[in-house]
Amino acid sequence: MNIRDLEYFAAVAELKHFRQAAERCFVSQPTLSGQLKKLEAEFGVSLFERHARGVRLTAAGEGLLPYATGILEQARRLTEAAQALKDPRSGPLQLGVIPTLAPYLMPLMVPLTRKLHPRLDLFLSEMQTRDLLKALAEGRVEAALLATPVAQAGLVSEEILLEPFYLAVPAGHALARKAALTAEDLAGQTLYLLEDGHCLKDQALEVCHQTGAREHPYFRATSLETLRQMIGSGNGITLMPWLAVKAPISQAASIRYLPFKAPGPSRKIALAWRKGAPRGAFLAKWAKEISRHLAKPDTVNA
What we know:
The chain is of the alpha/beta class and about 300 residues long. The chain contains 11 helices and 11 strands. The longest helix is centred in the N-terminal third of the chain and has 28 residues, at about 60-85.
């Protein structure tokens, strides 16, 4: 038995398909099947049951899978720890980022990281908060950029930005001429929002609850750029986080971005990692470097 055999076991268990598992593991299907037969012989039990639609785990396979995935996770953490002890500023770093942050923060953050830590190789994965927290807990990502707070124990986080929200409105909207908004300005307004699963959707709904605004009942966007295009074409209004407003793509004559009078709605952006992570000290330093690099939120309408 070796680590690769357990990787084959876990891949087939997840994908329920030998060919797809072989492709994921970058081996031929006969090689994967042969190694799994050897693993079954070593264990003395059958791990998989083949059927017309593919493959399913046997009762023995179901019982042994948690042990296999646990060993794989520990092996990943062992490799991660060895690299971190050797030089925490070099080697691969798997970073997860939420979708409402990735397109706007990454273009600012990646060049800075390359300049300060040229031997660090960032591997970026974009996923919603729920999936990102699971990936962090399972060791599939080493650190995550997300909106806090999050309901998950065992994490350490370093805030990098208190990001205010702006109200994006068509240039001809009744609110467009205001220099700054109050909660009363949103009372009775209908906002276009993201689909469920985005933490920004929950934060925007909280703003609606506090101000007397409401969500549009028949529209759910998959991204902030979809919302931006809707507002730019004169359809509705929405909340936008500062980094999305600051991005060069945001500067369109058809849209006005209105700040709120202090204290306005905002969200906290942080870098998070597992407690006790080998690179924890470096990640804390890195978060501070990113925070210093970000300009303070200011007026965006020139």
